[in-house]
Amino acid sequence: MVRLSIATAGFFLATLLSVPALAQTRPLVTEEMMVKTSDPGIEIYVRNKRPADMTTFRPEQTVLYVHGATYPAETAFDLKLDGLSWMEYIASRGYDVWLLDLRGYGKSTRPKEMADKPEANPPIVTGQTAVKDIGSAVDFILRHRNIPRLNLLGWSWGTTLMATYTTENAAKVERLVLYAPSWIRQTPSQVQAGAGKLGAYRMVNRDQARERWYTGVPEDKKASLIPAGWFDAWADATFATDPDGATMNPPVLRAPNGVVQDGAEFFGAGKPYYDPSKITVPTLLVGAEWDRDTPPYMAQTLFPLLVNSPGKRYVALAEGTHTIIMERNRLKLFEAVQAFLDEAKKS
Predict the structure, then answer these.
(1) 200-224 core/surface letters (b: 16 or more CB in 10 A; e: else)
(2) 3-state DSSP call for residue 115?
(3) Residue 6 has what pLDDT?
(4) Cα separation values, 285 from 141, 307, 313, 339, Å
(5) Listed residue (103, 67, 111, 126) closest to 257, CA to CA
(6) CA dist 80 to 22, 70, 127, 160, 230, Å?
(7) Read out DSSP for 268-337?
(8) How far apart are the C-alpha atoms of 138 and 115, rounded to whole Å?
(9) Fewer CB atoms < 10 Å away: N or C end of the chain?
(10) Which SS3 state, helix, strand or coil, does residue 244 take?
(11) In this structure, are residues 35 and 101 in contact, taking their beta carbons and an 8 Å threshold?
(12) What is the pLDDT of residues 125-155, one digit of tens each?
């Protein structure tokens, strides 16, 4: 792995890992790196996949993905299921694709508060902090590729973060994809924060993750929702990203609670976190009918508020949950997002 700062981005030595060619794909290369943030001691993990023969880079062919409230980016966006990850699906179609773990998640630096008991500190990694991390990643990619803009793709909480960043930095954004977008809440949150005072972070075990995933799925559809082995593949990869949590009984994944605090203060209290009218780039909202984390009413409410987004659209996918990215109908999600991204390449 390469550790580097934005200032020294041009001098890092990358590790290139060949990715096996898949059906209807091109050979890909992978780079992993740590990018310094503006806060001392905090580095964020980014991963890049792109066609091995890609030598020029353009805004419309560059994508940055960020995760949601609980789990890191790479164990969903770049998890090989049936031999293919979503990150590879996009990259094999001629894109320079990046993912980001916010601080406190995945392979990024865990704030010092996570080494203490959760109740010893207030919630960490609020949206304001997370948007700063996105800014660090965006600036690094733009400098590294010598491009002025890129596409942003967020999932769940990541939609709030990417939308907020876009309202503040429209000149750096080509297109915006909001997968399972969050908005003003009319139903209870599915994020399990525990009882009592909100601490620095929360702990989620494997059974809780499975239960949350299946919430809202009709009983007669549960057996076929997730192909055999896919949940375990995701859970094994995801819980392994938290070695300290793995030593607990039962093993847990620790996740910062800043998002929970923000949710209570904004969407849970009927207040918008950002102003949709300030989004001035083409925007796609995409979600699934059985989503109980960000139910369809959220996207349906948000969509007409995007009054200054040219070419906006909303795609509703059948028979999927908040986590359709790793379900039997995942290709419907991939295809909808790809069609939106490809429009810019054709123009």
Answers:
(1) bbbbbbbeebeebbbebbeeeeeee
(2) helix
(3) 39
(4) 24, 14, 6, 13
(5) 126
(6) 11, 20, 29, 26, 9
(7) GGT--SS-GGG--S-EEEEEETT-SSS-HHHHHHHGGG-TT-TT-EEEEESS--TTGGGSTTHHHHHHHH
(8) 28
(9) C
(10) helix
(11) no
(12) 999 999 999 999 999 999 999 999 999 999 9
Instruction: Write the CA distances from 246 to 54, 66, 238, 241, integer angstroms.
Output: 39, 24, 11, 9
Pairing label, strands 252-256, 201-205: antiparallel
Residue among 148, 138, 57 nearest 99 (CA): 138
Residue 321 has pLDDT above 80, yes or no: yes
**Cβ atoms 318, 329 nearer than 8 A:** yes
pTM equals 0.92
Per-residue pLDDT reduced to its tens digit, 31-72: 999 999 999 999 999 999 999 999 999 999 999 999 999 999
| Torsional sign, CA 333, 337, 339, 342 | negative
| Residue span of the structural domain in which 206 resides | 2-346
Per-residue confidence at 193, pLDDT binned at 50, 70, 90? low
* 308 or 191, greater pLDDT: 308
Q: What is the CATH number of the domain that holds 302?
A: 3.40.50.1820
Residue 168 CA from chain centroid, whole number: 19
What is the DSSP code string of 164-218? HHHHH-GGGEEEEEEES---S-SS-------SSS--SEEEEEHHHHHHHHHTT--
pLDDT per residue over 144-183, tens digit each? Answer: 999 999 999 999 999 999 999 999 999 999 999 999 999 9
| Total residue count of the chain as it appears in this document | 347
Query: Mapping DSSP to helix (H, G, I), strand (E, B) and coil, where does residue 243 land?
Result: helix
